[in-house]
Specification:
Integrase catalytic domain-containing protein; about 35% helix; elongated; transmembrane; about 15% strand; 11 strands; five-stranded antiparallel beta sheet; membrane; alpha+beta; four-stranded mixed beta sheet
Length: about 325
Amino acid sequence: MHDVEIRPNLNVVVMGEPAVVVKVVSVAQVEVKIFSSRKSMIVDVGDIKFLPSLISTDNLEGDYQVIDEDVPDEIKIKAGERYLAIQRYLNGEITINQAMSLTNTKKSAFYNLLNKFSEELGASSLYPGVPGREAGQILLSAEIEEVISNAIKKKYKGPAATYVKVWDEVSAQCTKQDLPVPSLSTVVTRIKGLGKREVHRLKYGTESAIQNYGAKPGKINLTHPLEWVQIDHTLVDCILVDEETRKPLFRPWVTLVIDVHTRVILGYYVAFHAPSTLSVACAITHAALPKKNTWRILGVITWCILFMVFQKYCTWITQGSSKVPS
């Protein structure tokens, strides 16, 4: 294990909260002050977790920073409060305005704190004069990076692959090799760093990755409107509410018929039910027949491409189109 000297003014984590050691009570207990509540308590040494920046690096490869020595308590408490506020903001618990109020900063200063914020360094990354981590900078040792890389190859494959499974493997291997266990967010960052296409390939296979991220050669040569249309369904960005209680009910669906040659919307259908044959039929009817006011777009469609629909829709359209008079 890596040795850490427990001393006053040492930044630690107690019950998931950043704290500072006030004094050493005994060999097995210390008094700490929680940053968020500013309450003091006596805890067992075994209940304390040390920030990565405090771990001895004599036998580790890579760059580490020890920046907690000779830092006044006032600065540590302020940095701890800001760390918690930024963490809540990044987790979506509070808005940026609330985070700015908690950190007592304006927007530009708050963004500077975001650039300096580091989960690996904890509250110490927000000390005054401490530069933020540069983009792409790696703070883990080569051994831990190798463990993460091997865990990704071993566990992140197939549709059932998750970030947590990879982190569980990393945690087990680091514990086995007596290495510090990196956080879940660090492992997620390493996985996402592979790129969207590679992450998709590992989870869904090469063919799916090509279909989703590969280049699509060729193009459709069209000469006139109504030659080729696309039909798709999507949820509308609004929520219907009960007319009496005003309680939210659901979001309506809209089916659009789009002409590929002109990119004009030929017709649409708004429904309270999920996409169905009825949705497609009504949208095509709206596209083919005259419409009120100044929307003078209509006509019989030659080819249809449907998205998010069942094969039976295509059968229905084929049968219906054969009955339309020329």
